[in-house]
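thread: overnight batch results

M.L. [08:02]
morning all. the overnight job finished for the chain we discussed friday. pasting input first so we're all looking at the same thing
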Amino acid sequence: MKNIGLFVGSLRRASYNKKIAQYLCRIAPEGFKYSIISIEDLPLYNQDFDDDGDVPKSYQDFRAQIAKLDGFIFITPEYNRSVPAVLKNALDVGSRPYGKNGWNGKPGAVISSTPGNLGAFGANHHLRQSLVFLNVLIMQQPEAYISNMKDIFDDEGNPSSTSSTDFFKQFVKAFAEWVNQVT
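M.L. [08:03]
and the structure it wrote out:
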């Protein structure tokens, strides 16, 4: 069983990104278990915690969680043409202390979404820059820029169109193939 962590860059209760993550958990391919990993309780990264040996328990727990994962899917909105601070903070916490990058060498993928028309293109590519530096082996295709999110899911959390259902199923299938190829 491959354990895949889903990291949602929106903390909003009615987050479109959480809806995507919840749906992906329901359609995870055979041999894969998808779990949403909480990032909301991580204090802003401060190297003094590591240097002084006073690491918050939330950091310790988070780092232990990502160490056990076989891969990652990052699901992000776009804030000011970039990723939300909470998601960038999670990347920083997981990559420290220096020399103990928990993301290193594991497969990953990015989904960006927006209620607008551009599919959060800026956030998607900005996030990819950080992930490349952290040596996350990012799946290149299919790319996932989800526009008009207010129309994508019905009230039960299922895609409201066959084309959306097909896209998400194609995405998780491609990601499973990617994980199996690089691990």
